[in-house]
TrEMBL record:
InterPro entries: GvpL/GvpF. This is GvpL/GvpF family gas vesicle protein. Signal peptide: none annotated. It holds the Pfam family GvpL_GvpF. It comes from Rossellomorea oryzaecorticis.
Amino acid sequence: MSQENGIYVFCAIQTDKEEEFGTIELEGEKRDVFTIKYKDAAMVAAEVPMKIYHPKKDNLLMHQETVSEVMSQNDTVIPISFGNVFQSKEDVEALLENLYPQFEKLFPAIKGKIEIGLKVIGKKEYLEKMVKENPEMEKMSASVKGKSESAAYYDRIKLGGMAQKLFTSLQNEMKKEVFEPLEESAESAKANEPSSETMLLNAAFLIDRDKEELFDQKVNEAHEKWKDKVDFHYSGPWPAYNFVNIRLKVEEAG
């Protein structure tokens, strides 16, 4: 293989045979997606120019769509993060051999499972109403308005602390009211740190593929109850990104 090319890996699967997953378009060229095997494990990969790939929209979409295509044909998919390129197929084979003891344990744990993401965002009107219903915050907010920037400095800090406290209590409520009931219907669940000020829940659920409809129903019921106060952003199915911790390093292959 020429120096200019490397092997980009998308995910790992459990399979007994060589497989192909069509083509991807990268850097304006179509490239075949194939497997590199070790025992009953395989990396889904493509030969690409050897360089650092930045997580811009087109590249991320290409990665996600390839993994989705693999998931539609295989029920045991171990996710690998975006942007991993190795120098040769031999490096990937060596890495697979190195990771195989982990894969052996993971395969039965994630077989037939998918990840579903749920973000709950507080609606502006609802959040404003919660602030107004907090007399201390309302009072502090009014006093800040009437003062100059420098005079209100400490009041602003105090107000920021109160707002943080209020948001934390709303996030805890959402965890109890939405996350915990859904957790009972999942194989596993994870509440990640909210990634914005108005996000009240940032959760991932690992569920059986054949129970996806049932889980959707539970999410719809929760949405029905909360739809006037919050927006639900529901995504998936994904491979188990939040439930699998595989670190890929070229050195490990050596």
